[in-house]
């Protein structure tokens, strides 16, 4: 137990060409520190789905989607506030004093979220490119294509791969996903995929939004509650991503992700499924 707690956030096994030591390390972390909490969350979520039935569930998932859409876009600099985002999505009222492109991206993000709920497709490069195109075809000329320029983050020392390596790195990421989806706990898989994706930064724009959509797709398709990373709590999120990148240690982000996931159960907080514990 102690060596697992010392390891989380600091070090992953070295000289692990086949990844077996890393797999064992991650599975040990889940088993010893987080499995009980994940089981409680999943059980509550399943009872919640049964209790409320299909009609209310549709409303709940729609409400989550609108809140998730607002926060995910706000994190990336959207000028719309929560009320404006909800009015746009519920009443089709576009604020005339905001950037029209921001309003369009709120609308298209919700559209992709709804596709996420209905999709039976396996995660693939084709799916990722299709969703990116739907997100940005009205606002970005590079929608649905991997970047052909190098990118960075203003004010940060974070480094992303050269654009010439993006396609090969994305192929490696999909291969990694296909190998690990039967090995890793779904929450771990979603968090790691999210970090690895954004660390490649495969698109010229939209990497954060796409990474959070894909994270929730993996959670949802595996029967786990989705996660809404809130704009007002973005500082810890940014810090975890940056430290993980700079220290080349994905465990820093994984540690943050697990703790945030366990303490931000949207469905319990807003709809009282915690009464089912």
From TrEMBL:
SUPFAM superfamilies given in the database record? Fic-like
InterPro entries this protein is in?
Fido (IPR003812), Fido-like_dom_sf (IPR036597), Fido_containing (IPR040198)
- Which protein are we looking at? Fic family protein
Q: Please name the source species.
A: Promethearchaeum syntrophicum
